[in-house]
Known about the structure:
Blueprint: H1 4-19, H2 29-34, E1 38-43, E2 76-86, E3 89-92, E4 96-101, E5 114-116, E6 125-126, E7 128-138, E8 142-146, E9 152-157, E10 159-162, E11 165-168, E12 170-171, H3 180-183, E13 197-200, E14 206-207, E15 215-221, E16 227-235, E17 241-249, E18 269-274, E19 279-285, E20 290-296, H4 335-360, H5 363-375, E21 383-387, E22 391-398, E23 402-409, E24 423-424, E25 432-433, E26 437-440
Parallel strand pairs: 1-15, 19-26
Antiparallel strand pairs: 1-5, 2-3, 2-4, 2-7, 6-14, 7-12, 7-13, 8-9, 8-17, 10-11, 15-18, 16-17, 19-22, 20-21, 20-23, 23-24, 23-25
Amino acid sequence: MMNNGAIKNIFLAGLLAAASLPGCGDKPLFDELATNRLKVVIKGTFESNGPKDWSGTYPVDDSVNDFTTSNLDPTRFMVDIAEMKLGRSPFANYRQTYAFDTTNTDPFFNGTGVEFVCDDPSPKHHGMLHIYLRKLIFDQGLLYHLDPVGTWTADGDLSSIFKEHTVEGFDFNQLLVNSHYDSLLDQADSINKVFPLSIEIDDGGLDFDNDEEETVLEVRFVIKNFVKLYEYDSYNDDGYHQIGHYYAVSDWLRDMQADESDLGGNLIATARAYVPGKTGTIQGSVTANSYVVAIPADKTISSYFISAQAARPVCNDTNCYDKPKTPYLPAGNSPESFLDYYLKYEQYKYRFNLFVPRVEDGTYETQWDAYEDDVKTYKIPPIATFSTGTTYTLVNVPIGKKYKLYSIAAIPDGNMHINAGWTASAANSSPITIITGTNTIDIP
Length: 444
């Protein structure tokens, strides 16, 4: 019978032998296990490099309709991610939390990005990335209630739980589960747009190869310069009408209107992959203060904007293709509040009578389905930058692939490229094949 010392010696000998076994390529097995060849980098910008500076302008959404006041600008953005998967593969099943400053120097917002710890996935083609989001929080959220005399009274800061502690801020991730369109469907309770958030890996997907020393999977959330101030409605414990003012991602894609709370479908993201050392740079001239994007040569720019007719069904005094919202009851003894309520209620009844025929003739369902079919096709260009001058530079562009280049003038904060106003490079008739070093394409 062997003693403990003998057993330890055998175990150590086995470890040493395993360390010398061949792994992937010419490297020993233990070197393979200790090496992470995939690096996941997350960014909070539309641009893949050279993002536009924060302008300090935060548009006010039309949901802010009960009480108009000025919030302090957000200073912190907090993110809690449970895990990521490539297809069904849980290659990054480590919960990670981040707190970013809303500044031009924070790596999340300056184009550098921050790393998300992961393991190497299977060496094969991966086309879809699934991100399981737990919390998305901006600070500077404020709470108010309508007191008995009809005055909005401040109740202090909105708060959320982040990293198991209470923090000042509002977790808008809870509003991203459904879009307003989703909420109209019979299966609304089974729809969840953020757990996971599913993202197609653009530009050919991720072909992970163990023989490469490093592969980067770049994941970009459109946050910077696409933030708005919103209002949600509720009743407090005393039965008074209560509102919260909070910051969240812009609803430029799927409009959230007054007295609604579904913001789903507006957290827009993209992902792409490249191998460091096997990339080139694209640069050239462009009109000042423009976005420049590179898209795969086999795609059309129409995949990266929303057509002008993509308008949400309306409810007005002529036609109502969207169920009208009942007004909130006033509180206390304010005659002005009650008069305002009854006026809103009469308008609600009138519009509801317009709404019923649209349900009966089928146009309610038809218009909403057409709207969703239009907006759901939108994608973020895989490679993008912003130019303040008359030249631009796109970096980390995979060599050997062909691209077409487009530019568009700077747009108002909180919006996106919702029309076909792109300027094409003359070189697009024969898309450029990227080589190592500098590739020059001028855009008129």
